[in-house]
Specification:
Layout (H helix, E strand, L loop, with lengths): L4 E13 L9 E8 L10 H13 L9 E10 L5 E9 L1
Antiparallel strand pairs: 1-2, 1-4, 3-4
Length: 91
C-alpha cells in the first residue's frame, strides 16, 4: 500500500528581471512556492484571494505523477497580513 506524504509549502511572489537573450531587462512578478515560511510573501487581506484563485486556476499543470493535489489555507501574519500555505499531497 502506498503511503501518502505531504509537503508544506508557502506562496511567494518574486520579482524577476531577465538579464540575457532578447528579453533583457524584461521585468515581471512570479508566483511560486517555497518550503519555508521565512521566504513567504505576507499578503494584504484584499489581495490574497486573487493570488489563491490564480494558483487554483493552474492546478491542472501542477498535479500529476506523484503529486495528487493541494490544500490551500490562509495563515495570519503580523500586521494583519496573511500567508498562504499550500499543502502538496504526494502519494
Amino acid at each position: 500500500m502506498d503511503k501518502q506524504f505531504n509537503n508544506v509549502l508557502y506562496f511567494a511572489v518574486l520579482p524577476q528581471i531577465a538579464v540575457s537573450g532578447t528579453s533583457f531587462g524584461r521585468t515581471e512578478q512570479v508566483l511560486t512556492l517555497v518550503p519555508d515560511k521565512n521566504f513567504a510573501s505576507a499578503f494584504f487581506p484584499e489581495e490574497v484571494d486573487t493570488y489563491i484563485q490564480v494558483f487554483r486556476n493552474r492546478l491542472s499543470h501542477l498535479v500529476g505523477g506523484h503529486v495528487t493535489g493541494y490544500e490551500i489555507e490562509k495563515e495570519t501574519a503580523s500586521g494583519g497580513r496573511l500567508y498562504v500555505r499550500a499543502t502538496q499531497n504526494v502519494g
